[in-house]
Structures are given as C-alpha cells and as structure tokens.
Design goal:
- The protein is of the alpha/beta class.
- The chain has two domains: 219 residues, Spore Coat Polysaccharide Biosynthesis Protein SpsA, Chain A (Alpha-Beta Complex); 67 residues.
- 45% of the residues lie in helices and 15% in strands.
- It has nine helices and eight strands.
- It has an eight-stranded mixed beta sheet, sandwiched between helices.
- α5 runs parallel beside α7.
- It starts with a strand and ends with a strand.
C-alpha cells in the first residue's frame, strides 16, 4: 500500500493536537499502511508547539511567525514523502475516521477526493459565510464539488508538482487541479463541533479569500495571455475614443455642434490614451510573464526548524 502523509496546519490548538494525533494513529494502524503525520505550527502563540513535541511519531514544521493556513499547507505538502497526501484541520472538527473513505474513493481513479461536510456543526454565521463563498466560488472557479472550504482532502503527490500555494488559495486547490486535467471526486464526511480553542475565521479572512479567488480566476483565464485581456480592452477604448473624436470633428465642420464648452472631446481623447496605455500594459505583462517562468520564486514563509520524532 502507498505511503500516506497527513498534513495538518496548526495555529493555537494546544487543546486539540494530542487527541487528534491519537485518533489519526488509531485509524492509520487499522489501515496497516506506512504513514507520517506532519504538523505545521503556524506561529502559534499558546503552548501548541510544546504539546506537539510530546507526540510521537510526528514531524513538526515550525514557522517563525504566523503566515496563514495556505502557507502552512504548502510547507507540509512540500515536505511530505508519501504518494498520497491527506490534509485536515487541527481543530478536531475533521474526523480522522473518514480517512479510509477518502482513500477508498481514490481507488475509483480519482486524483483528488474532497470531503463534503453535508451536516455542518458550525454557528449559523460561519455556515452562512461558507455557503455564500461556495456559491460565489462556483461562478469563478467551478471545481465541481459541494464544499470547497473543507480542509479534509486526499491528493496524489503528483498533483502538486510545480504548484505553489499563496494567500488564501487553499480553498481553490481542487479547481486549480481540475483545470490542469486532474480528476476530482468527493465523499460525504463527518463534521464535529469544536471542543477547544477558538475559530480562526473572520471577515478579514473571508475578504482575502474572495480577492485570492479573483486572482486565481484571472490567472486561469489570462496568465498565459495578458495581452488578450488588456490589449482587447485597450483596443476597444481606442476605437471608441477615435469614433467619438471623428464624430465630433464632422459635426463641428458641418456647423451642427459647438464644442467650446463641451466635455466630449476630452472624453474621446481620454479613451484613446487609456486604450494605448492598456495595450502597452498588456505587452509589458507578456514580457513579465516570460520572465516569471524563467526565474525561481522564493517561498512566502520562513521555517525556523523541522523536528522529527520516530
């Protein structure tokens, strides 16, 4: 059986990590598969790191400060050595007993299997925000699953070859992978109430997630052809401005319109200049894109240490 890596981003979850680790070990021992458990301590300010150091077996990736859930997932995934990667939250709301369900679904030929928290145990406000985000996400991302926000997912390691995660884009990983041709599936999973600690979700994280969703959408549509977007808009504005100026010129020559106090000539010239600027921006975007693919980007987080306990 393939080796399995369980990656768990962790921020201020001192009351949950020990019990979660125990549950994961019990499930994995029953499966009889080779496995590793990777906790990424995302700059916790409580005793999470001390609690993690008491566990075994475990790999602890300790960030210097809080970089966010997406950065923690990226670090854990890059460090993972398993052929299959399971991601889950550290708050205990994802049930490790559902891991076999994800693995069984993958046997049907799926590259990614996402958990679907069909009976949520969250507050009404959090549930409403999540449902709204899923609805908007389907319009921009179209990942084909019900619950993009569920961290409990199983991936083939190869899914992340050449993929860098940033911002709050962990919610959109299935959509990104679907665009690349990977097969995405989902299973209904258990969702448990939080028994310790506080939720990390707030309006700021929701806003950042929406902005990152727009970024992912733009990257998918125009990352390889920014000139098509900016050039197309610029060409349209240039034509509109030119047509307006031509119309005003003809009307003035024929004596049918006085332009001394009119703002329309300024509008026409503004459209022309804006159109030229957008076309130039598209050309510069093409140049920048070529350079982007030629250079190596640094990771948006800093690892202080990696602790491995057998």
């Amino acid at each position: 059986m393939a080796k399995i890596s369980i990656v768990i981003p962790t921020f201020n979850e001192e009351g949950n990590v020990a019990s979660l680790h125990k549950e994961i070990m019990q499930v994995m021992e029953r499966l009889g598969s080779d496995y590793e458990i990777i906790f990424v301590n995302d700059g916790s300010s409580d005793n999470t790191l001390e609690e993690l150091k008491k566990l075994s077996p475990v790999t602890i990736i300790n960030f210097r400060k809080n970089f966010g859930q997406t950065a923690a997932l990226d670090a854990g995934i890059k460090h993972a050595s398993g052929e299959i990667i399971i991601t889950m939250d550290a708050d205990g709301q994802n049930d490790p007993a559902d891991i076999p369900l994800l693995l069984e679904k993958m046997k049907e030929g799926y590259d990614v299997v996402s958990g679907w928290r069909w009976k949520r145990k969250d507050s009404f406000a959090k549930h409403f925000v999540s449902r709204t985000a899923n609805f908007v996400g389907k319009f921009f991302i179209s990942d084909g699953i019900h619950d993009s926000g569920c961290t409990l997912k199983a991936y083939k390691k190869e899914c992340f070859d050449g993929v860098d995660l940033y911002g709050e884009m962990h919610r959109f990983i299935p959509g990104i992978l679907r665009w690349q041709g990977f097969k995405i599936g989902e299973v209904k999973v258990n969702h448990r109430p939080r028994h310790s600690g506080k939720t990390k979700y707030n309006w700021q994280r929701t806003l950042k997630g929406f902005l990152d969703m727009l970024s992912v959408w733009f990257w998918r549509k125009y990352s390889a052809r920014p000139l098509h977007l900016f050039g197309g808009m610029g060409f349209f504005l240039f034509l509109a401005g030119s047509a307006l100026i031509t119309y005003l010129f003809i009307m003035r020559v024929l004596g049918l319109m006085a332009l001394g106090q009119s703002i329309w000539p300024l509008v026409g010239f503004f459209f022309i200049l804006a159109g030229i600027q957008l076309v130039v921006s598209g050309l510069l975007g093409d140049v920048t894109l070529k350079n982007y693919y030629k250079i190596h980007r640094s990771r948006p987080y800093s690892i202080k240490e990696i602790i491995e306990k057998k």
